[in-house]
Amino acid sequence: MTASLLTLADSRLPAGGHAHSGGVEQAVAAGLVRDPASLAAFLLRRLQTAGAVAAGLAAAATTLSSSGRHRGQVPSPVAPSPTSPSSEEPPAPSSSGLVAALLALDAEADARTPSPALRAASRQQGRGLVRVGRRAWPSPPWDALPAAPHHPVALGVAAAAGGLTPRDAAAAAAYLSVSGPATAAQRLLAMDPLTVAAVTARLAPEIDAVADAAVREGLPADTDPLLDLLAEVHVVRKGRFFAS
Fold it and tell me: Which among 163, 181, 190, 184 has a CA at the least distance from the CA of 51?
């Protein structure tokens, strides 16, 4: 655990996440989230689908963006892990190679996000994270990202710039996949903050499991049609409180 990881997972980081509910606003409107029990079920479902994908992408982006000290820990379509460990660190990717690798990873994020509304929300948050990340953790890999990368990809670059590991990046992504929606539910339903905090805290073992899987396995593709549907209904809704 490092201060950089705490900063990256802090909801006060001005990256725009506060404007998004992760599907909770529409779930509340549909009656799917109405009390602590239904919130816990929704958060767990989100963690094990969208959260798992975000964790895998963030870990892969950290691997690509790191200078070789973390490379090879995360198998991915764009950064295959070596068949055997080496005593020497592999060289950092060239600038053009990193651009191509991160673009390919961003395309993998697109492929794992069927909903156009969720794609837009992810890129909005990714752009916001790049802005704050450049100021907080100046690093050359920021220049290799597209203008509005998917949020998990930007998160992985931020983690690498902050000296974190792929496992750290995966943990931050997994945690953020439930912490933001939990806070949104608290605001929308006027829930007791202590109760919501307890709901989130009880997900710690599952968050750790998702983060562990992200660095042990390839990029997951655990989409959830319910989250896609909620996002598409929400984006055309009038008078919504959150952007997504």
Answer: 181
Residues 138 and 21: beta-carbon distance below 8 Å = no
Residue corresponding to tokens 């605001």:
187
Q: Which two tokens stand for residue 97?
A: 């190679």
What are the C-alpha distances in Å from 199 to residues 5, 31, 143, 149, 152?
22, 19, 38, 31, 24
Predicted confidence (pLDDT) at residue 10 exceeds the cutoff of 90: no
The amino acid occupying position 57 is L
Token pair of 49 as six digits: 């689908």
Q: How far apart are CA 208 and CA 233, in angstroms?
A: 31
- pLDDT, residue 67, reads 58
* Residue of 79, 181, 171 lying closest to 121 (CA atoms): 181
Using the Cα atoms of residue 171, residue 172, residue 173 and residue 174 in order, give the sign of their dihedral.
positive
Displacement of CA 66 from its chain's centroid (Å) = 18
Rg (CA), the chain: 17
Query: Model-level pTM?
Result: 0.86
Is the distance from CB of 24 to CB of 42 less than 8 angstroms? yes
Cβ(169)–Cβ(159) below 8 Å: yes
CA distance 46 to 52: 8
